[in-house]
Amino acid sequence: MSRLKPSWQAVLAILFCLAAIASGSIAAADPAGVYPYEATKGLILALIAGAALVSMFRIPAMLEVLVLFIGAHVAAWLLIRGIAGVEGTARAPFYLLIAAAWLLAWRCVAVLSSIRTGSKQVSTALRLIVPTIFGAWILIIWEAVTRGAGIPFILLPPPSSIGVRIVNSLPILAADVNQTIFKAVLFGYLIGCGTGFLVAILADRVPFMRRGLLPIGNMVSALPIIGIAPIMVMWFGFDWQSKAAVVIIMTFFPMLVNTVTGLAASGHMERDLMRTYASDYWQTLFKLRLPAAAPFIFNALKINSTLALIGAIVAEFFGTPVVGMGFRISTEVGRMNIDMVWAEIAVAALAGSIFYGVVALIERAATFWHPSVRGG
Amino acid sequence: MDRLRDKIVPVTTLLVILVVAWYAFAVLLNSPFQRDLDRRAGETPGTVEFIGKTLTQTKPTLPSPDQVATNFFENTFLRKITSNRSLIYHSWVTLSSTLLGFAFGTVLGIVIAVGIVHVTTLDRSLMPWIIASQTIPILAVAPMIIVVLAAVGITGLIPKALISTYLSFFPVAVGMVKGLRSPELMHLDLMHTYNASRSQTFWKLRMPASVPFLFTSMKVAVAASLVGAIVGELPTGAVAGIGAKLLAAAYYSQSIDMWSALVAGSVVAALLVVAVGIVGRFVERSMGGRPA
Amino acid sequence: MSIMIPEPKQVAGMSEVKNPVIEARKLGLTFQTNDGPVQALANVDLTIGKGEFVSFIGPSGCGKTTLLRVIADLEKPTSGSMLVNGMTAEKAREARAYGYVFQAAALFPWRTISGNVALPLEIMGVSKAEQAERIKRTLDLVNLSGFEKKYPWQLSGGMQQRASIARALAFDADLLLMDEPFGALDEIVRDHLNEQLLELWARTEKTICFVTHSIPEAVYLSTRIVVMSPRPGRVTDVIESTLPKERPLDIRETPEFLAIAARVRDGLRAGHSYED
Q1: C30 touches chain A (CB under 8 A)
Q2: Reported ipTM
Q3: Cα(A165)–Cα(A343) distance, integer angstroms
Q4: Is the bond leading into A207 cis (omega within 30 degrees of zero)?
Q5: Treating both helix axes as pointing N-terminal to C-terminal, what angle do A186-205 and A290-316 enclose, rounded to 10 degrees?
């Protein structure tokens, strides 16, 4: 066995480097006749080709990861930094080198993914690092392409300027979040999930109602309920109450259907057991059926966390006071302030993930006993 | 017989209760405005006449079921389907971008799922993002996609279909990953004893095992796809489609039009979900699945 | 081929049984299914006295589990009568007259072992202090001390089943109904639990009804063996055990044990001949 172990990513990265050398300068000359990257071209090439070469030797996995990680990311950073101020002048080698750096990052992730470890901390860290590198590269490529090709700002702003925009507009974003999430979404979510749950318990006591509600609830869940938004705006006015109403209706049915299904989920044997104790309806409900239904209820809570946010934002497209995430998105689109739209979307994404994450954490704590949780 | 007792009777009963409640609410919600009208006209109608009037306003707060039904019937069956007022025309516009986006989304979802199941790197790096992206209110992006694509000269069907694609590929990808991983260890071991190649295992075991999962998630995806198409029609520019119709009716507070557009959207959704369900059952049966 | 069909006979010494705990008279149960009515039990007469250990044995579908469920008021008979402690089965259930052990442990996964044993006590409104005392006592009884804080899924199958027996014992009912409690366990564990069960029975002097499909298990455990056969489910034979109360595991190699086992097997075969 030789001491080399070539990977397709590393070989391709080296080929890209050679092609970049052969096809001239990285970016066009500026008006003064000076080429950017005069100083850094050699360093970039050396970083990428060097990391690729080193990775092909049989070295410890962690060392290989480190070399690839540094090579890929420093090279990408130099490339993006170099294009700043001369956007739109990038030539083929620019993209070749970015692609080469990306290949190294891929190789790095592939090595990380193949690491098998007994340690729980290390594997948790790996589960976080791998997707983080992947996500970072989406941003890197986005940044490199928008700056390199000089894509007009109003079409697709680079992530860095969206970041700047977020930092500069924190008060506006905070006001929007307060209006949309802390008023409309939370209120609607609590009421919608709460009534869905209570109606499910009610339906459970009356089998006739349960048999009728389940098919109706299932069907309604598939309907474009979001269309109710203009009607709610007409009824409850422009402020957050109308958005909360949309959220209530959107979250009600998933909760109803899931709770009714969950209440039927306890086993026959367990229900017979409660019967042998001559346990009454409420004792059986609280000691057996609700705990057994918990996974279903949490499933609805998770689905609803996303639905609630969508409902509130889209409802704001139909009219709001001059604050709110949906309002901001629709007006800034109209004014072609695309970076502000992206900033709002980033905040919405963050808020959505946090909302979902909190519900998921509570779920883990509450249904620790369920195979899907305790199995990892 | 059992089906009648267990399902049809309770469902119908509840629907009847719902319609009665709707009428009651229509009277309740429309009466303040009607009282106002009567006072200005100096009329004092009797109770029956008053209730009749609340149910026949032109721009009621809550239109009565028969008003919506009449409007829906007129605009569906009595208009030429090329007419701007025909609901068939608007539904067709929305449906076409829904179907296009749904087709894109399903293919994309399957491709991603196959990649995730077979390439460890993708599984580790892409899967967390797919799950995380479901937590993001992605519909918020809709207006921007429409406007930005319009700025580079892409209008019409494609931008709306893209939003539908975006919404529909998540459920398909997640469902398919689950489905492709659903074969039991024993069956995988069996394939292993035959020294089957990866592609043989895929086509003979993983693919058939994933079919029920695929159709279940396609039902979710097609409903999401329709929502995407409708919301895609909301921002400025769209003149046709259920979403545009909804927006126009909201703008002129034509509540009856609004409700019948909503009914049209619901009918389309129900038809799509039922159609996917029928195709799914047909495919499963032809593959020897147990009729449920 | 002509086969002797045993007459449905009266249970041996029915009138002699003192302090009857269970009395079934002309008991019948017919299920309505999609394929028409199925007679699960027909004309069952049976009396079980206090302190007895009675096994029900027979092929699947013979109604032995159904009979146990009728005693527990989990099924209602369609004819005849069932008295438990001199009351109807329903009244007896409401008076919490028995503990029931199922085929699977059926422990609640969200409760610890002591939480599971506490479940019936909570439902019956026993005070906290009393609960703690009884949990300790019953877990001692099934040799599970030290596992109070564990969750069911952290224990082996045999330990789970022992916990479920502890749960049935916790509220001190005099009657224990067991439906193939060790059926899902391997033979080594099963032998061990059989031994422990006998010891427990001797110590607590409870009445036990035990459903099984294992002949050695039935003979080893019981004072009386009720042989049942299917279509319709009925009692075909009742065998009094002549084994002493003290039974080490190797009693299963004695001629006396083998003779009783042979009688049970004959009874099962006679019932079976009906089908063909």
Answers
A1: no
A2: 0.81
A3: 7
A4: no
A5: 140
Q: Average pLDDT for residues B281-289, to the nearest whole number?
A: 79
Residue C180 near residue C65, CB atoms below 8 Å = yes
Q: Is A2 an 8 Å CB contact of chain C?
A: no
CB atoms near residue C95 (< 10 Å):
13
Dist. CA A222–CA B270, nearest whole Å: 7
- From the list A109, A113, A155, the residue facing B148 with the nearest CB is A155
pLDDT of residue C12: 45
pLDDT digits (tens, 9 = 90+) for C68-106: 889 988 888 888 888 888 888 888 888 888 889 888 888
Instruction: Using the predicted structure, report yes or no on whether residue A6 has a pLDDT greater than 50.
Output: yes
Chosen from A269, A271, A273 to mutate, greatest number of chain C CBs within 10 A: A273
Q: Are strands C207-212 and C53-57 parallel, antiparallel or unpaired?
A: parallel
Q: How far is C229 from chain A (nearest CA, A)?
A: 24
- Give A280→chain C minimum CA distance, Å: 9
Provide the 8-state DSSP code for A313.
Answer: H
- What backbone phi and psi angles, to 5 degrees, belong to C7? -65, 140
Contact C96, C171 (CB under 8 A): yes
B258 touches chain A (CB under 8 A): yes
Instruction: Tell me the chain A residues in contact with residue B14 when contact means C-beta distances shorter than 8 Å.
Output: 209, 212-213, 216
Residues present in chain A in total: 376
For B232-242, what is each residue's pLDDT tens digit? Answer: 887 655 678 88
Distance CA A183, CA C111 (A): 37
User: Which residue of chain B is at minimal alpha-carbon distance from A112?
Assistant: B121
Q: How many CA atoms lie within 13 A of C87 on its CB side?
A: 12
Q: What is the mean pLDDT of residues A332-338?
A: 83
Residues C12 and A12: their CA atoms lie apart, in Å, by: 90
How much is the average pLDDT of B68-79?
81
Alpha-carbon distance B21 to nearest alpha carbon in chain A (angstroms): 16
**Which residues in chain A are contacts of C73 at CB distance < 8 A?**
275
CA distances from A85 to A30, A99, A147, B9 (A): 10, 22, 9, 72
Distance from CA of A169 to the nearest CA of B (A): 19
Nearest Cα to Cα of residue B133 among B154, B149, B109: B109
Spell out the domain ranges in chain C. Answer: 31-97+173-276, 106-172
Could you give the CA distance from residue C119 to residue A288 in angstroms, rounded to a whole number?
10
Residue with tokens 């006001």: A175
* Whether the Cβ atoms of residue B32 and residue B1 lie closer than 8 Å to each other: no
Strand blocks (E) in C149-222: 175-179, 207-212
Model confidence pLDDT, tens digit, residues A103-114? 888 888 888 888
Q: Which residues of C199-218 are buried (b: 16+ CB within 10 A; e: fewer)?
A: ebbeeeebbbbbbbbbbbbb
Q: What are phi and psi of C109, to 5 degrees?
A: -70, -20
Chain A touched by B120 (CB under 8 Å)? yes
Topology at the third CATH level for domain C31-97+173-276:
Rossmann fold (3.40.50)
SS3 category, A36: coil
pLDDT in tens, A121-167: 888 888 888 888 888 888 898 888 888 888 887 778 888 889 999 99
Task: Spell out which residues of chain B touch residue A252, defining contact as CB-CB under 8 Å.
Answer: none
What Cα–Cα distance (Å) separates residue B176 from each residue in B130, B133, C174?
13, 16, 54
Rounded mean pLDDT of chain B? Answer: 82
Sign of the CA dihedral running B57, B61, B65, B68? positive
pLDDT at C7 over 50: no
